[in-house]
Amino acid sequence: MRKTNIVIDRDYEISDVDHRIFGSFIEHLGRAVYGGIYQPDHFSRDENGFRQDVLELVKELQVSVIRYPGGNFVSNYFWEDGVGPIDQRFPRMDLAWKTIEPNTFGLGEFANWAKKAKADIMMAVNLGTRGVPDACNLLEYCNFSSGTRYSDLRKKHGMKEPYGIKLWCLGNEMDGEWQLGRRTMEEYGRISAEAGKAMKLIDPSIELVSCGSSSKDMPTFPQWDAVTLEENYDYVDYLSLHQYYGNDSNDSDDYLAKSDDMDEFIHTVVSLCDYVQAKKRSKKKMHLSFDEWNVWFHSKKEEEDIIKRHPWQIAPHLLEDHYTFEDALLVGLMLITLLNHADRVKIACLAQLVNVIAPIMTEEEGVWRQTIYYPFLHASLYGRGTVIKTVVNTPCHRTSCHEEVRDVICAAVYLKEKEELTIFAVNRNLSEDQELILDIRSFGKMKILEKLMLVSEDLKTENSLNKERVKPVKDLKIYADGQNIKTVLKRASWNVIRLKNKTED
Ligand code: AHR
Which helix (H) or strand (E) holds 191? Predict the structure, then answer.
């Protein structure tokens, strides 16, 4: 059997985890809003028309922050369409996804829903087809107390107190040729700096996210990021990263190596931020907001067909990837990567949350959890604390596009108050189990709380409404041996090892 040794020393802290890395995303896209979180004619609806079965799962995931209302959608969104009495709102053509937006759900409804979901809001402004004045009006509507046109409009709409939204995205993927109102890097640098300056005059307590490149594969990456940041550095607090992966070539070994690309992407963007900081002689360290990340490829062909052949529907089935077991492994690997960069990645949004490339799916009969639901759940429940550096001695293998792929990838999070240590580990060797020895002697005597794993004979196993084939199981074969913990990481597996200091008993 292959062998992996991991040494974890409690003195080697990477950083506290910002709870906002367990964020997600709701865009007006497909069935995310209509038929997803909001369905006034559904049997599980509450008094606001929110599906309670969906809310229960969102709460179970403990999603910390939710980005809204897009995505590509925001770049031609007129937020005024979605406020005020519902019977006075009118539908509009959504050019991003070629659908009809009914506008029966907007800002007020979302704020109400997010409150019920116990999540903070990350609001995006339209810097595509609109600009600085509209971003300011929206912020005034949301955060200013009263006595001005937009704050009084909010009050007239029944919301006496400001929403107090703290986190704002300055547009979305503004480098993308698909984006409405796409901008050159010079243009975006200027408009985001001016929007940021004005918005912070309205509310100095807000935090702003500048649009970085839409992915590592953009031809203008990383120049876009450097040029735009040089222009807006003083006004923004985070630079965004977006990345989706897929297994289009059906090469699972190589697919699971893609979290290494994500790791490299983060390293590059951190270096770039530090370069701009040095160039500007600034004292401010730029942090990262990985505000779109996930697996997205299963539905791409279908989605093109719907958009091309049957445009202008209300809430069609768009981007409804049905995830497999191997997708859950990659999502787990991506979560581990985010945790290990907790010193610079302060916000991350699994894109998205319901129906659209999502962990939660709805049908008329009820809701179900996709395979990727579980790594997110585990990380969100047990990954809040301090990330400790792991020194991992593990064998390597090659894949078609990656030369040296470590078999085992892991992250360790220590929750000081509870004296609990959690190790998240994926064995991405698809054919061999791994004997694991964890050396945690610096923590003193630890007892085993539990070991959870996701395993499946078939990498392509999916879940559905009626059958949850991929779900966590407990592994009892884990032993404390002196100051070491010993167990086996099965081939192709997601593992959560939960330990607790013994002196607490
Ligand atoms: O999450 C789906 C889409 O992916 C978003 O609308 C866009 O920002 C990205 O390209």
Answer: helix 185-202
